[in-house]
Write a structure and sequence with these properties.
Helices cover 43% and strands 15% of the residues. By secondary structure, it is α+β, with helices and mostly antiparallel strands. It has three domains: 80 residues, no CATH class; 93 residues, Serine Threonine Protein Phosphatase 5, Tetratricopeptide repeat, CATH 1.25.40.420; 75 residues. A hairpin with a 2-residue loop joins strand 2 and strand 3. Helix 3 runs antiparallel to helix 4. The longest helix has 15 residues. This is KLHL4 protein.
Length: 263
């Protein structure tokens, strides 16, 4: 027979296929949903995959959610999540954000969406935020905020974070899961040029801690080895070295954002 897949019936079809253990239908339905992933629906697909026991769908939807977290939190699905699902998201090291403050602001947006009913969960959820990694001025503002002032758990967490900033010489003794940066916030490791087997190479690769992989991001204007590299204002400067035959006195600058070279 022929199976017609439609957005408005795909979940019912997948649920029935799971109930009847029709593996081929399950696979086709899951693949269809994976292709439909978007910041506005990935949380729902993630939850549905979990409920149906579709491990691969759950994994792919979760990975998509982590990768597009900044876009996901702008959608209604995020604001309607229950507290336990918010906790699962906030506890992940794999959230793709520029800094910890972005995750904190996402939590605040969720709490304020239904403050009367969600205030009680604030202390528990705040424990998943790496508060010691927030700017000290923000922590000082939070300490005086009415939303946090009457919550003992929040005050305890804020005090822990303030001590981390006020006593830098004791930070080695204050290490905890809340002082560990998320993978996306620790910067990147770049491998530039050098030797590839028996000849010089022109490639630039970046190591992505979140995906545990090397990603090609550009090429130099020519082969170069035994050179110096410096980072200034988020740009890579390649200085001197050799092209394999002669010494070079050229300085090149690479912008990782635009992937453009200047000499």
């Amino acid at each position: 027979g022929i199976l017609e897949l439609k957005e408005d019936t795909i979940e019912s079809l997948l649920a029935a296929a799971c109930l009847l253990q029709l593996s081929q239908v399950i696979e086709v339905c899951c693949n269809f949903l994976m292709k439909q992933l978007h910041p506005s629906n990935c949380l729902g697909i993630r939850s549905f995959g979990d409920a149906q026991g579709c491990t691969e769908l759950l994994k792919v939807a979760h990975t998509y959610t982590m990768e597009h977290f900044i876009e996901v939190i702008k959608n209604q699905e995020f604001l309607l999540l229950p507290a336990n699902e918010i906790a699962k998201l906030l506890s992940s090291d794999d959230i793709n954000v520029p800094d910890e403050e972005a995750i904190f602001q996402a939590l605040m947006m969720w709490v304020r969406h239904d403050l009367q009913n969600r205030q009680q969960d604030l202390g528990m959820l705040l424990s998943y935020i790496r508060l010691p990694l927030l700017p000290p001025q923000l922590l000082a503002d939070l300490e005086n905020s009415p939303m946090f002032a009457d919550d003992l758990e929040c005050q305890k967490l804020l005090m822990e974070a303030m001590k981390y900033h006020l006593l830098p010489e004791r930070r080695s003794m204050m290490q905890s899961p809340r002082t560990k940066p998320r993978k996306s916030t620790v910067g990147a490791l770049y491998a530039v040029g050098g030797m590839d087997a028996t000849k010089g190479t022109t490639t630039i690769e970046k190591y992505d801690l979140r995906t545990n992989s090397w990603i090609p991001i550009g090429t130099m204007n020519g082969q170069r080895l035994q050179f110096g590299v410096a980072v200034i204002e988020n740009k890579l400067y390649i200085v001197g070295g050799r092209d394999g035959l002669k010494t070079s006195n050229i300085v090149e600058c690479f912008n990782p954002v635009t992937k453009a070279w200047t000499v």
